[in-house]
Design goal:
Elements (H helix, E strand, L loop, with lengths): L6 E2 L15 H10 L3 H7 L6 E5 L5 H10 L2 E5 L3 H9 L3 E3 L15 E7 L8 H11 E9 L4 H8 L24 H11 L1 E10 L2 E3 L3 H4 L2 E8 L2
Parallel strand pairs: 1-4, 2-3, 2-5, 3-4, 5-6
Antiparallel strand pairs: 6-9, 7-8, 7-9
Length: about 230
């Protein structure tokens, strides 16, 4: 008998008002960029693995991985609309505030923990990365690269960048962290996070030279030292 998708209770109560809009930005960005990164992420995940998707939006990635790889997937989101969309999409979902961490999840329970195009929307970046690698064997993150050429040019002209990968004005952006690939790699080195693989994209084209300058979207596969 096929299991129906479930809304799984969290140990901590969610914060439904203040943080509900944080991951709405996920849907806006993915609508603009398309989801070419689904294929990239899927290549790093083996059939039947347990996958946790943080800031999962409507559950499209997990639905894709379930269909293509037969994964056992769980999404995490704090927006009630996204939670309902996940259930309609056939995806198990947990409604919690990511800023509070993942304390209700056992160490090493998941094979992969994914955060696609949402890392820039959280305040406690270091803690969340540590939590991802606590509950998962590997982590996969993607984010807009603030160091891309057009973004630098906008800053040089005295304006905050607005682009395909950063499609917001300064006053309505859900993004609270603005960082480059070089910044992210420096943080990983400082915290002992292993960069197992990295890819950069400009649109859907793979960037091979000077990723920090030329890539608008970065995708990383991360692991723990030792």
């Amino acid at each position: 008998m096929q299991r129906r998708p479930r809304l799984l209770p969290a140990r901590r109560s969610a914060l439904p008002c203040r943080d509900a809009g944080v991951f709405r930005g996920y849907q806006d960005v993915t609508n603009v960029l398309g989801r070419f990164d689904f294929d990239v992420i899927a290549k790093w995940i083996r059939p039947g693995e347990k996958v946790l998707d943080l800031g999962c939006g409507d559950g499209s990635l997990l639905r894709y991985l379930k269909d293509e790889k037969g994964v056992l997937g769980y999404g995490v989101d704090n927006d009630p609309d996204n939670v309902l969309a996940c259930i309609r999409n056939g995806v198990n979902v947990i409604q919690i505030d990511l800023e509070a961490g993942l304390s209700g999840i056992e160490d090493g329970f998941f094979d992969h923990v994914v955060m696609s195009l949402s890392l820039q929307t959280v305040r406690h970046t270091e803690r969340l990365l540590a939590e991802m690698l606590r509950v998962g064997r590997e982590a996969v993150v993607s984010f807009p690269n603030f160091g891309q050429r057009s973004h630098r040019e906008a800053i040089a002209e005295g304006r905050m960048p607005v682009s395909k990968s950063l499609p917001y004005q300064w006053y309505n952006s859900p993004n609270v962290r603005f960082f480059t690939m070089a910044d992210f790699e420096a943080l990983c080195a400082e915290r002992g996070i292993v960069l197992r693989e990295r890819l950069g994209f400009d649109g859907e084209a793979t960037v091979t030279e000077d990723l920090n300058l030329n890539a608008s979207i970065a995708v990383y596969r991360l692991g723990k030292a030792g």
